[in-house]
Specification:
By secondary structure, the chain is an alpha+beta fold. About 40% of the residues lie in helices and about 20% in strands. It folds into 2 domains: about 80 residues, no CATH class; about 80 residues, no CATH class.
Length: about 180
């Protein structure tokens, strides 16, 4: 189908679609830029109401989450030494092979003295210890608080204002063909 064969109603729709698509792209970029500018200005745990500049009517909220600190292991040897000291009865025994050349020579004879035993920290114990490190000092760990999340929740008033701006816009003329 070429442009000369496009029915008028379809031409109107593709005109509006092209403009609205660009509007959405530019609006998303403007929103992302403003979020990036606003993000560092809001402390964690903030919740503010967006208000219409003339009427004071609520348009929704903008909030910054307040995440809990998360513990990370920064020195594994120190952390594991602390976990071993605090939980000696929960360590697991893992059997391994000593010198592989010797083991290969005598494995057929089932020589148990060639096996070594190592006490290891089970994953569940490691996770519990890291969970504890989020609220208490645990050697070999550090507590880092992740950045908050900025949330914007417009309400119906904001939706109606945006719709009115789109319908009444003389600059975009999105609705002019209607």
């Amino acid at each position: 189908m070429t442009d000369t064969l496009v029915p008028a109603d379809l031409q109107e729709d593709i005109y509006r679609l092209a403009l609205l698509s660009e509007f959405v792209k530019l609006a998303a970029q403007a929103r992302n830029d403003l979020r990036a500018e606003t993000f560092p200005r809001l402390p964690n745990g903030t919740k503010l109401t967006a208000r219409h500049p003339r009427t004071g009517e609520s348009l929704g909220t903008v909030s910054m989450s307040d995440p809990d600190p998360t513990a990370y292991v920064v020195d594994n040897a120190v952390f594991e030494a602390w976990v071993r000291e605090q939980n000696p009865g929960e360590l697991e025994t893992v059997r391994g092979f000593g010198d592989l050349a010797q083991v290969a020579a005598v494995l057929a004879e089932h020589a148990p003295h060639l096996l070594t035993e190592t006490r290891v920290i089970p994953e569940s114990l490691r996770e519990r210890a890291l969970k504890a490190a989020a609220v208490q000092t645990v050697p070999g760990t550090a507590r880092l608080t992740p950045e908050g999340t900025l949330s914007v929740r417009p309400n119906g008033v904001a939706t109606e204002l945006v719709r009115a701006a789109l319908v009444g816009s003389t600059n975009l003329e999105i609705e002019a063909a209607r």
